[in-house]
Fold each of these.
Amino acid sequence: MPEELAATAHQFEDLAQQHEADELGMWVFLGTEVMFFGGLFLGYTVYRHVYFGAFEAGSHLLDLLLGAVNTSVLIASSFTMALSVYAAQKGRKKTLITCLILTMILGSVFLGIKGVEYGQKFHHHLVPGYDFNPEGNFPAHMSLYFSFYFIMTGMHALHMIVGEGLLLVVLILAAKNRFTAAHHATVEVVGIYWHFVDIIWIFLFPLLYLIGGR
Amino acid sequence: MQPGFSLSPEQASTIAPHVDHLFYFLTGVTGFFAILVFMLIFVFAIKYRRRSEDEIPVKVHEPMALETAWIGIPFGLMLIMFGWGAWIYYQDYNPPAGAFEVFVVGKQWMWKLQHPEGKREINELHVPIGVPIKLVMTSQDVIHDFFIPAFRVKQDVLPGRYTELWFKATKPGRYHLFCAQYCGTDHAHMGGWIVVMEPREYQRWLSGGEAGETMEQAGRRLFQQYACTSCHFEDNTGRCPSLRGLYHSQVKLVGGQTVTADENYIRESILDPNAKIVAGYSPVMPTFKGQISEEGILQIIAYIKSLKSPERMSAGK
Amino acid sequence: MSSLTVDEAPQAASHVHYLNVKFGVKSWLFTTDHKRIALLYLASITFFFFVGGAAAVLMRLHLLTPGGLLVEPATYNKLFTVHGILMVFFFLIPAIPAVLGNFLVPMMIGARDLAFPKLNLLSWYVYILGGLFTLYAVVAGGVDTGWTFYTPYSSTYSNSHVIAAALGIFITGFSSILTGLNFIVTIHKMRAPGLTWFRLPLFIWAIYATSIIFILGTPVLAITIVLVALERLFHIGVFDPALGGDPILFQHMFWFYSHPAVYIMILPGMGVESELITCFSRKKIFGYKFVAMSSLGIALLGFLVWGHHMFVSGQSMYAGMVFSILSYLVAVPSAVKVFNWTATLYKGSISYDAPMLYALGFIGLFTMGGVTGMFLASLGVNVHVHDTYFVIAHFHYIMVGGMVMAYLGGIHFWWPKISGRMYPQGWARFAALVIFVGFNLTFFPQYILGFLGMPRRYAVYPAEFQVLNVMSSAGASILGVGYLIPLIYFIWSMRYGPVASANPWNAKGLEWQTPSPPPTENFEEIPVVTEEAYDYPVREAQVA
């Protein structure tokens, strides 16, 4: 099959080997991402234990409703991403493009809501290092909670933005007919990444918003 | 200090000979294996040197017993090294009861020390021979490290909490004090001397010079100056718990946990009072962060430590 | 005596290979050929090695007198910081993986390139970008935190260019991650037919183990450095106790990466060692599986021992004991390697070619570094020698005595393959000897200095330490000359060296089955592997 040969990079023997390599590469990369966020989770856990009261008080100041809406938006985007991969496997270009656009819209909604939440925090003077001056009596180490809140959600949002960029690339490639039922590893690899970023949020949401005696 | 050149540092504390014995044991055992390896390499390299270009070596058997031996034997020896080292470390960590306390504050780039009798020193510490001395140390800025090579002791000195180090000097003399944790520009200059004296001489030194207040007295003065007494009544009738007999007691907190009231707990309660609230009390105490110096806090702690509960006093003596 | 064979056939040099297939700066800067990328790395790490080395030379000169000979303490602090950062992050960590690994991994496993050639080029650019940030920090006025960036000094108190240097290390970390990722995927998915895991050369096992550490450790360093930078910029208080943070947490996170990073620096060296010892004694490696598995053992156990950098930091006594015994555990696989290499020599056919001299020197110096590790793992002794010159001597024996010797040995071994030329054997043997002598004279006295109690990072020191310091500085000048000699003859050989044959050492391994220098595609036809690694011919022992 000459098509397949053209799609195979020179260093690989065949397309199957290339697909396997691409996927393994993404999994290994996600391993590094786990360690990266792992460091943050470790720091959060240590300080939550040490300054339990301050972290509890901090988590009460988050907007649970917005957090919950965002969680469902992100889960929905995972669903549409999974549909995109399915469509790519079946070679259905139109469905693929529709689902990719839906995923990107849901991702943007998430980032938009996140932006609204950040705006609220600025409004309530809850930004450590810039303007931290909440109303009323608050525990001394609550700023630490908000430091972690901003770093963790910020890192996550950064990964979302990178994901949006990757989706855009996949979308353009799909529009240019680059994918076939046999050759669509890029869609799958980006899909794996997108699900991973969702999973990070699935951990962040309870850690930051839920636990702590609501 | 003797000038010139020596291969081993002076031994001037009770722990030093233990450390040295372990050091020499390690030198002996590891030296034996290192030299064994060097000899084998040397002998093989000469005996089996290539004699012709087309030489073909003899097939060598790889006995499993050999692999097992050189995994097992070193590991067994290492367990001894671990156990011995851990035993010394355990002693390093556990000062004998009734050790004499000296308080140390490190800052860029000097050591400030204060004896319980109130005598202050900078970059120099006078101690008597044969008495266990416990240093309670903290830092005003970055991490420092209190290192006395002749005593073989070393401990990082951290900002925001207390660490401890103890020794019992055995030989009069002047010994180096170094800062061993890099702390900025003049790190290399942040040192001084430990002066070890005979007990009688030490008493003479202690009584010489200005006769200031003791740590305890200074702490009591600060305690009144900061109006601690207006809430912390001695008989538990105040808005705050009584501090009599607090030190080393178990304190019940709101939320059901219990903590031991050590130096770090008292320090935290002064600087961040709302972090741990004693059960039955409300969070009314203001923070004293930024108002009392590190030395002041140490003095207040010394005062609180001196407030023994009546039953404890009778049990102790 | 030498097994050097010079191929005089003129057509040997005139075949089309990766060096002469294209010319011009662009053909190098946009190459995706793993061999060319390896050479880009070779040039850049050599540059960083000599910059870092210059800092070391200035330090040793300064320490000739107790009061300090050359510079102010503030400048001295910047010198050792620059030396540490450049040597660790820009030389030792990338040296063998990025140069020899890049060049050899595809050739040793019979592949045409790494799995992701563009990613490979990207990782070189990332490395250079990180290097530029660090050099900017140096040129703009320096950094004075030490390569360890301990908080709260780095995050609050230091007035130097911490952010730029931290950013440089952060960026370079991604280069390590990408390289490691590339190797893992390549080794898993692209081995030649018949090349099973236990037929792999031990160099590949070592690189594989190293890549695991790259993948799992580097991200933790990345997030730690991000937190330090954020604390410095926005005072968010993660590590500074004055802001509610915990400086010990920094140390835990830093050493969680940086202890395994020590194994990043030595494991590839061990891999090179196995290749050299077998080739120059014409023997199968003694205990192949033990050596291979010990690499993985070191990589995994290496993640559990970070706390032994913190025995006097104020962590709990029980934590100290756990970390101590685990540290002894990780020493076992290293000892296994040393014994197996020594046993490989037994009844071999040992030649004294330059790479072998480096290999033998490696065993000696690595053993010295290893056994003094036993001292440091022992809690009671550690308390005394912690943060003294004993530690400096110990890790230089591992890093410089071990890693740099192995690296140089490897470069000498594969230079004919890389450049297609031979270098002068006599000079190479002489350089190996000079380096060995200079190294020992530099660092052995430092063990004694440490035992006597001289703390590290001291710009001035008490007078009684002078004799040993002068010895050390004298050694350093010999060592410096020793490193310059190979630089000169390697450059000379590129133009004037005799043309090398495909396999000048009569070595086993797929990389020697293709011409020197190899064609861009490495192999005309992908080889099929039918034998185990290091299957050198043997004869049965005669019955007595």
Amino acid sequence: MPQIESLRDTLLATPLFAVALTLTAYLLGMGLFRRLGQPTWLPAILIAAVFLAALLALSGIPYPEYREGANWLTILLGPATVALGMPLYQQLPRIRELWRPLVVSLPLAASLAVLYALGIAWLMGASQPILASLAAKSVTAPIAIGITQQLGGSIALLMGGLLVTGVAAIAFVSLLARWMKIKDERIIGFALGLNGHAIGTVRAFEISPTAGAFASLGMSLTGIFTALLLPLAWRLVGVIGMSVTS
Amino acid sequence: MPAVGGFLWLVGFWLVGETVVTLTGLPVSAGVVGMLLLSATLMVRGGVPESLAAAAQPLIALLAMLIMPGVVGVFFILDEMAGYWTAILSALILGTLLSVATTLWLMQHLMQGYHAPD
């Protein structure tokens, strides 16, 4: 039926179709997540992403076309990143109170989070674009996307990496904290936010408001630190690498 | 609609961030510069205006939705990355185990003497 064909083409041509698909998958994902009792090992975003992939497959839209339409939505990531400045400001009293341990541990832990992952991937023979995609794996998504674009990595792979990292961080923090007999919710929250970005921070808020506040602190400071230094370090290493090979 | 005014704050700071990045050539995203400038402005001003909170809170809550179009892309590169998945997953999982252990160990030692305020 040619009429239905042309209707389908018309609908697929408008970016609002991609927007509607995204909103539908998000709501379905959140709904199922709540139904399942908010499991920590299965974040809502993972469920929603699977729904979205299914919707894309059903409607037959090629991913690049969908991506272009969804740009109308994702352009909001810019102002949303700026918005993170508000909770950061609200946490300043806590930062001041604990500035000494934070000044030492944050740069070390945030740098090592990058170096461990890159070191392992490099030893196992990952290519340079893969390294560039994994470098920002512990950074909250809106900031990590910016970093990865600077490094020339794949956003899709980064996003998958963020998901795996967030879920792994939740599991390892609870295991290791028990093993190391750490009960201080400030430390547990901070570790969740620093290593597990937004996914870890959501988990920390489930533990307690204090853990949540320290997780958002860890998340925002890691994001800022990595965003400021990783692209510079990457450029530097690239320059050294080139002068060595040439 | 106070949220409209707040949204203008956010977009405005993003544009300032973009200006700074373009002029200085810093390898940092406009959003991060805007975020830092926003918290610096709030520090000087002392307090969060209601309109800003009205726009910032829902946007932060929607972050997960805004990154979904990107996240779903990973399903479309599964074949492309075939052969690298062991390296990628080892780096992510083992790397996270090591960095979690480092963070907990560092904080455990550095926070001695800082008693929980209650």
